[in-house]
Design goal:
Strand content: 35-45%
CATH class of the largest domain: Mainly Beta
Order of helices and strands: EEHHEEEEEEEH
CATH superfamily of the largest domain: YopX-like domains
Strand order of the largest sheet: 8-7-6-5-9
CATH topology of the largest domain: SH3 type barrels
Helix content: 10-25%
CATH architecture of the largest domain: Roll
Number of strands: 9
Structural class: alpha+beta
């Protein structure tokens, strides 16, 4: 079973927590830093790793591309209890009815950035 993990972007870097660590920190209160970090937007681990040599974990907010389809960027989102890849193209890609594809339906993916550190990729995918 995949461990439930989250990350939060706080003080210009990512902080990683398991669900148990979040619960423990809330229950024991480790000071203002914890409260601020835990109030920041939390992004859940999808349970998937990309196909790069580093086998990066894929989280909400990551920008990915499907290997072999360079330039087709997707933003990972968690919607209605499932992970989706939202196409960053202005128009719906050919063969799709929506800009959202279930994340596990993409074949070989690679994390190329995230919405915090690489906002330029959000716009680059619109071509």
């Amino acid at each position: 079973m995949t461990e439930i993990k989250f990350r939060t972007y706080f003080e210009n870097k990512f902080w990683y927590f398991t669900l148990n660590e979040i619960m423990e920190r809330v229950a024991t209160y480790h000071g203002d830093w914890d409260i601020q970090a835990l109030r920041a937007e939390k992004q859940q681990f999808s349970g998937l790793k990309d196909q790069s040599n580093n086998k990066n974990e894929v989280y909400e907010g990551d920008i990915i591309e499907e290997i072999g389809w360079e330039g087709d960027y997707y933003l990972v989102e968690f919607i209605d209890c499932a992970f989706y890849a939202k196409s960053l193209k202005k128009h719906v890609p050919a063969g799709l009815r929506t800009r959202h594809v279930k994340l596990d339906e993409l074949m070989d993916i690679q994390v190329v950035g995230n919405k915090f550190d690489n906002p330029d990729l959000l716009k680059k995918g619109e071509n």
